[in-house]
Amino acid sequence: MVNNSTKTVCVVFPPLDKRKIVATSFPPLALNNVSLQYVSEFKYVGHIISKNMSDEKDIMREIRNLFFRTNLLERKFAACSFGVKITL
User: Alpha helix (H) ranges present in the chain?
Assistant: First the structure.
């Protein structure tokens, strides 16, 4: 197995039941003699994964992208007549 240690991170997902928390800190994890970083969120296959199992940040990212694409289309077709816009 080939692994890119510079792109690999660790996330600790806490249990849903707070009474089942075993530890709040974890020992360093190394792969190919490179210590991996613990993060609270990361991007995987275009989606933001966070340790609290919420997809709020991913939804907000998608909303921003939607506004960006909408504004881009609006600027590109601003000079077109209403009839052309309806046809498109």
Answer: 56-76, 82-87
Can you give the pLDDT of all 88 residues of the chain as single tens digits?
788 888 888 888 888 888 888 887 888 888 888 889 999 888 888 888 888 888 888 899 999 999 999 999 889 888 888 888 788 7
Q: Measured between alpha carbons, how far is 33 from 11 in angstroms, rounded to an integer?
A: 19
Side-chain half-sphere CA neighbours of 10 within 13 A? 14
pTM over 0.85: no
Q: Domain residue spans in the chain?
A: 1-52, 55-88
What residues contact 54, with CB distance under 8 A and at least 6 apart? none
Please give the biggest Cα pair distance in the chain.
Answer: 65
